[in-house]
Amino acid sequence: MTVVSKMCxxxxxxxxxxxxxxxxxxxxxxxxxxxxxxxxxxxxPYWLDKAYADAINVSxxxxxxxxxxxxNIVLTVLLGLRMREAKVIDFAGGYGFLxxxxxxxxxxxxxxxxxCDNLVARGFEYTDKIRGGVTxxxxxxxxxxxxxxxxxxxxxxxxxxLFSTEIMPDSAPSPDAWWYYGLHHGQHIGxxxxxxxxxxxxxxxxVLLSDGRxxxxxxxxxxxxWFSNIFYWSIKLSRFMPLFxxxxxxxxxxxxxxxxxxxxxxxLPAMNTPx
Length: 275
Prior knowledge:
Layout: E1 6-8, E2 15-24, E3 27-33, E4 40-42, H1 48-51, H2 63-80, E5 88-91, H3 97-104, E6 109-112, E7 134-138, H4 147-157, E8 160-164, E9 190-191, H5 194-203, E10 207-210, E11 215-219, H6 221-224, H7 231-237, H8 253-267
Parallel strand pairs: 5-6, 5-7, 7-8
Antiparallel strand pairs: 1-2, 2-3, 3-4, 4-9, 8-11, 10-11
């Protein structure tokens, strides 16, 4: 494959220059850095069929603990934005763990994912009849082949976007010095700096909230109010949310059971009445 010295940035369309190459899935892959928005991207990712042989990579041992932590963060953010009744749409929701956890906590949450089966939140798939208040996209941004197209899709679902991705330092780490490159699984193809996220906020007319490391929001300006000043600390303190969330929300575990049971009964064939 021909290696080019420059590539078009997948965020802002500026010319990105070669940064370094790395051994990714037994392939020598070049990474490019944008001088305008700071986004770092791989060359065109031709290896994704192999990388996504499984929708969830086998080394993702933190999937359950991460979903528990993300549940707490979503609850904290909804409370901080005064959006306790808002519908939450989990973009690229995987097996549905987060949606089920949120519904068990009382949040009206829905699942959407083009590439994975919904295993545990069945019956609560997103449709375009649902207008969300917040879209979540945890550990999604670094996977996006066409980031701006996906982000616009997310904003088409809800005007506020809560997401996670690890911030790349201003001085790009070498391939062997930063675990987030994900060289062993090949699914991470784009990396964001703080100024990349600020560029996106300006592009879409949003306000950027960030803890400076992993968790970020692109919000409608009139949704932020006082919460922007405490976003960092709300992420840090979200671990305590389970101590009092049941006083704020009523779990949907049983009501969801009743709803799905009624729907199931309604589609069963009528039983023959004995003569």
